[in-house]
Amino acid sequence: MGKCKYATALEGLPAETRNRVGGLTSRPASQLLGIGKSSINDHRATPRTCACASTTVPTSKQSPAGESETHNPDGTSSYTRFSDTPWGFDQYREFIRSTGQDPDKVTFTWGWTSNPGGGCWNKLNNVRPIPDTVAADNAIDYKMAQASLRAYKLPRRIPGTGLGAPVASVLNLADMQLHKPDGDGLTGTLQRLTDGLENFQAYVSRQRAGGRNIDELVMVNNGDPFEGIAGNYANQLKTVGAGLREQMNTVLDVWTTYSRELFPQYDKGQFVTVHCNHTQFGRQGGAKDSLTGDSDTGSAFLAEALQRILTGRPDFDHVKFTIPNDEMNVYTTAAGVPMGFNHGHKIPGAGADGFEKWLNGQVRGDALAYAVRVWITAHKHSFQSFDLGSTFVAQCPSCDGGSKWLRDTTGRYSTSGILALLVGNHVSTGWSDPALL
Question: Would residue 152 count as lying in a domain?
C-alpha cells in the first residue's frame, strides 16, 4: 500500500515540524504542506481510509511544539503559544511580563483556539506600548474617576437655600393691546393676564423646587400695552373699546398688580420697557408718521408713572427701571447675561433670516447689539425662537384676543400667551426652561 500525499509531504521534515503540523487543523496544515485539504482529512479519518494507514502521524494529546512571534509594520507585536488549557487574562499578562514589558503599559487583544490533537493555541495580538506619560495620566484619571463615582450621591437641594449660579426669571408682557375688541375683547385678555400671573408664580416655584437659584425678576413691557385710538388700521377709531385715558389706566393697573405680587419675592428686580407702534402719541390723530418723535410714546410714559408709584416704597427699593429715550433697542444685564429687547416693528421680514439680516446691520453702529446673548422681541403676535450661534432670539406671543383682520385676510392665527424663561450662567446657552403661560 503506497503512501498518501500527506505522508509523503511529511517525509524529510524535522520531528518538531511534523508535531506542529499534527496539531494544526486541515486548512492551515494544507497551506503549510502545499497539498489539498481532502488528502489530510482522508488520512486523519477514523476508521482510516487512507492508503498508508500504517503511516503514523502524531494525533495524540501530546503538546505540539512550536510558537510564533510577529512584529507588524504598524509597530505592534503578536504572539502564539501552546498550552494544555486556554490561558486566562492573568496568564496573558504574565506572558507579557516575561517578554520584558509591563502589562500596565501596553494595549493588547487576546483569545485562543482549540487544537484538534488536544490543547489550545493562545493568541496575544496587537501588543503596543503606551507612552509612559499617557499611561500614568490614564491611571490617575481612572483612579480619580473611580473614587468620584464611588463617592457620588444625588444632591439634596432645599428650595430657597440659594444653591447654584444666580438665575433671573424673565416675564414678558407682549402686545396686550388692552381694550382691543377682537376675539374675546378686554374681558378675555384680563382673564389671561390674571391666569398668567398665577401660572408664572407656579412656574417659578417649580424651578426653585428643582434647585434653580432664582433671585431676580425681570418684568418686561415688550410693547403695545394698549390698543390706541387711530393710525394703525382703518376701522380702529370706530371699533376700539375706550379712550386713551381709560386704556392707559388699565395698563397701569395690570403692571401695578404684577409688581405688587411679584417683586417683593426677589432679592433683585428690573422693569424693562420698549418703544412700539400702537402707543406712539403722534399717531393717535390718524397720521401714520410721528408728529413729535420716537420718545413721545405711551409705553415710556406709563413706565415712568409706574416708577413714580413704586419709588420710596420699601418693598420696591431693589427694583431697577430701564426706560429708553428714543432708542428702539433697549439693553440690560440679567444674572450676568447681556440681554437686548425691542418691540420688533422696525425689523423687516420674519423668522431667523429677517432677524439676522437686521442684526447684521445693527452691529455696525451699536456695539451693545453684538454683545447681546439673549434677544427678546414681539410685534409679530406669534411665538418663534432661533439660535444664531452668538445669540439666542425669542419672539413673544401676544396677550390679546387675536386679530380678525389677519384671520380674515390670511386664515392665520396664533395662540395667545405669556412667554417666561430663565436667564443666567447656570447653563452654557445663557437661557433655559422657556414656557408659554
Answer: no
